[in-house]
Amino acid sequence: DQQVKQNSPSLSVQEGRISILNCDYTNSMFDYFLWYKKYPAEGPTFLISISSIKDKNEDGRFTVFLNKSAKHLSLHIVPSQPGDSAVYFCAGLMDSNYQLIWGAGTKLIIKP
Amino acid sequence: GAGVSQTPSNKVTEKGKYVELRCDPISGHTALYWYRQSLGQGPEFLIYFQGTGAADDSGLPNDRFFAVRPEGSVSTLKIQRTERGDSAVYLCASSPQLAEGDEQFFGPGTRLTVL
Q: Rounded distance, CA A66 to CA A88, Å?
């Protein structure tokens, strides 16, 4: 039973354009959502997070939007750069429970 | 400063053998987490520690898996009687404390292959 789903295994975007990575969840008990970025042979690195009481969080080129009624969040990267090519994971965290529940990831490819 | 380190980076073993995977967290981080990632999937929670004690081990798949953190720093994940299904990348992470929304800093992982 997947509580966090990333339905697009891969996404290809032209450099300079906007990348939109999507994530759906089934458990309304999640308090926080986090996005992690992973390069091959490295561990995931934290990118940006959002509390469930907010609908938007922005950090430089990265913005995460949360739609609680649809149980959907998205990560926007603008403008996309070649160094953004990586696998992006969405993860949820529940109140007083420190287990990250992860999606399967989306491989983002930025084309020059 | 140094990040989370994990040793070995790769481990190949035979079915039925015992393995130990080591994690050195960032100095001063009191919380430590273990995850495993199978091919094509996201990481799956195994266990986390606050200090020396296992605060939540509900993700350990069965009693062949055990983890310790005797001095509140380095942790070892131990797998007995390994099975082919245990093959995965085992990830360790640490954070300054157990706090909701706190960033977890990950090591590069140990790739375990059980033949």
A: 16
